[in-house]
Amino acid sequence: MNERNPHAGQPIADDDATIAAALADVSIPTLLLSLVHITGDPSWIRGALRPQGLFLNEVQGFMSEEAKAEARRLALDVIRAYRDGGCKLPPPPGPALIREMMSWLVCTDVPDEYVPMMLEEMELEGRDERAVGWDDAPASARADFPVVVIGCGQSGLLAGIRLREAGIPFTILEKNPGIGGTWWENTYPGCRVDVGNHFYCYSFEPSDHWTEFFSQQPELQAYFESVMDRHGVRPHVRWETEVVGARWDEAKAIWSVRIRRKDGGEETLTARAVISAVGQLNRPQLPDIPGVERFAGPSFHSSQWDHDVDYAGKRVAVIGAGASGFQIVPTIAPDVAHLTVFQRTAQWMFPNPNYHEKVGPGVKWALRHLPFYGRWYRFLLFWPGCDGGLVAARVDPDWKGEGAVSAANEATRQIFTQWITSQVNGDPDLVAKVVPNYPATGKRTLQDNGSWLRALLRDNVEIVRSGIDRIEQDAVVGSDGTRYEVDLIVYATGFQANRFLFPIEVVGRGGAVLSETWGERPAAYLGITVPGFPNLFCMYGPGTNLAHGGSLIFHSECQMRYISGCLKALIAGGHRAMEPTQAAHDDYYQRTQKELAGMVWSHPSIEHSWYKNAEGKIHILSPWRLVDYWSWTREPDLGDFAIS
Ligand code: NAP
Known about the structure:
By secondary structure, this protein is of the alpha/beta class. Strands 3-2-1-7-19 form a five-stranded parallel β-sheet, covered by helices on one side. A five-stranded parallel β-sheet has the order 8-17-9-10-13, with helices on one face. It has a four-stranded mixed β-sheet with strand order 6-5-4-18, with no helix packed on it. β4 and β5 form a beta hairpin. The chain is globular and about 75 Å long. NADP nicotinamide-adenine-dinucleotide phosphate is lined by residues 192-194, 281, 287-288, 302, 319-325, 327, 343-345, 444, 468, 492-495, 608, 610.
C-alpha cells in the first residue's frame, strides 16, 4: 500500500461540533483549497467564494463575513463526509490545477518561473525536494570527508541535518551552551520573530505546533532543539567551544580549525571543508558615548540581558530602538517606574494586527488534520513577501518627489504614515518624533500591532530623539543638556554586522587572511564561496541578508543545497579543493553592487543603518529576487570554480 502523504493530515475522528468550532478559526481561502484536495473537485475555486485581495499576514483574503460563513457551512458537510468515508483522498490535483490554485489564493497570476520554487517550498508530493541525492558519490568517499560547521543556529543546524543525511562525518562547534544562535542569545523581554512562524520554519518539518503566529524566543529556541534531536544532530555538536581560527593547509588540502574549549584549553580539528554558519547578528555593537563606563547602576546589551536585574519599579533608559528596542519597550513599559527611550532614527512600521496573537485551537486542528492546509498556508505567508517588496525598494531615477524613491515607494510611505499617525491622537509633537524622514523600507521595516506607539503614549514613557551627549554616574544626558536620571541602562544598539566571521582568523591560500582580504567590503560568490579560500562555504554570508521579504530559513535552505552540491562534486570527483574563480566572483560582486546602488537601502538620506558599512556602502544585503537566488543556487555551475 502507498504511504500516506505526510501533508495529507492526520485522520479525523472528531465529532461535528468539534469540526464546526475549528472552522470558526481557520483561514477560509486556505480551507477552500483543502476542499479541492479532499474532493478532487476544482469547482471550489471557480465559484463566487474567493479571496478579494492580498496583504501580508492577512490570511482571510478580505472575504466578507457572509462569504466566510457560507464557506464554513459548505466545508463542514465535505469534511464530515471525508471523515465518515475513512479520510480517503482522491488522486492529487494535476499541475494545471495546482497552478490555478496558487493564483487563486493570492489573487495574482503566479508567473511560470515561480511555480517550481513554490512547489518545492510546499512539498505537495510529500518529498523533501531540497535534500540532495548522494548516489553518485560513494559512501566510503563521503565517510572520508570530514566537515566542520561553525555555529549551531538555524543555518548550522540545517547544515548538520544535510550532512547527516549525506553520511558525511561532521562536527558542529558552538560557542554557546545550547542551540539557536541568535534565538539562544536574545532573551530580552518581548523577543519574538517577525516573519510568520508557519513560514519561518524548515520547509521539511511540520508546522502545526506554534502557539503564536510570531513566536517568542523560548518557543523558537525549543523548536530548534526539538528539530536537532529529531534529526540526530545533537551528538555531533560541541557546545561552549569557540572557533578561534582556521587555516588552509595547501599541501594536505585540509582546514586546521583551532578551537577554544570552555576550560580555556585549545585544540585543533582537521576537516576537508568548513561551513561557516556564524550568523550576522551576534557580536554586540556598544555605542561610543562618552562616560559609558561611569554609569554606576546595572547596564547591559539587549542580547546579553541580565535576568538577575529586576527592572520593575526602576527608572530605565533604553538606548537604541531598532528591531530589538522596538520589542523591549512595550514589554517592560507597564512594569517600570519610568522609561526613557533614546531613538536616534525613527522606524517605519508595517501594520500587522496579528503580531502578538495566539494560534487558536481551530487553526492548530486544521494544520494537523485538513489535507495540505499547512502547505497552502505556508504559500499564503510566503507569496506576499516574495519579490513584491523589491518593487517598493527600487529607486526610480526619474522620480522627482520628496521622501520617496518611486511611485510605489511613495504609496508605501503613505500607507505606513497613515498607520502611524492614526495611533497618536493627533499629537503633533509625537508625530514629529515617530514619522521617519527617510523613504519607506529604507531601513529594516518593523512589524507592528500598535503596541509601540501605545507604549510611547504612556505617562511613564518618554521618547527622546535628540542625541546623547554623555553618560554620568546616575544619568543619561541628552545633547540639549537635559539630564535623565536612571537606575538601569539597556543598550539596544545592534550588532557589528559588517564584520563577517569576526573575530575568527581565517587564513586561506598563500597565508591570505580573510578579514584583511575583505576589509570594509566583504563579498562572496552567491554569498557562499570566496576565491583563495578553498572548501570554505558560508551560510548567511556577505550579500545574503534579506530586507525585502522571504525568510532567512528559506535562504539557508537554498545555500545548504548549493553547498551540498559543491561537496558532492568534490567527493564524487575525488577532488581536493574547489574555490570560485576570481572572474565569477568579481562579476557577481559587481552586479550585486550595481543592483544595491539602485535600491532604497542605499539612499543618501539614510544617515545611520546597520546595512551600510563605514564607507556608506552595502555589503550585507541581497538585492536579488528570491526566485533568482533560488535558481542560481539549485546546483553549483562547476564552470564557475577552480577545482583541483
Ligand atoms: P539595530 O536595528 O541596528 O538598532 C540599533 C539601534 O541603536 C538603532 O535605533 C540605532 O539608531 C541605535 N544606535 C546605534 N548606535 C547608536 C549610538 N551610538 N547612539 C545612539 N543610538 C545608536 O539593532 P537591533 O535592534 O538589535 O536589530 C538588529 C537586527 O536584528 C534587526 O534589523 C533584525 O534584522 C534583527 N532583529 C530581528 C528581530 C525580529 O525578528 N523580530 C528582533 C530583533 C532584531 P539608528 O537607527 O540611528 O542607527
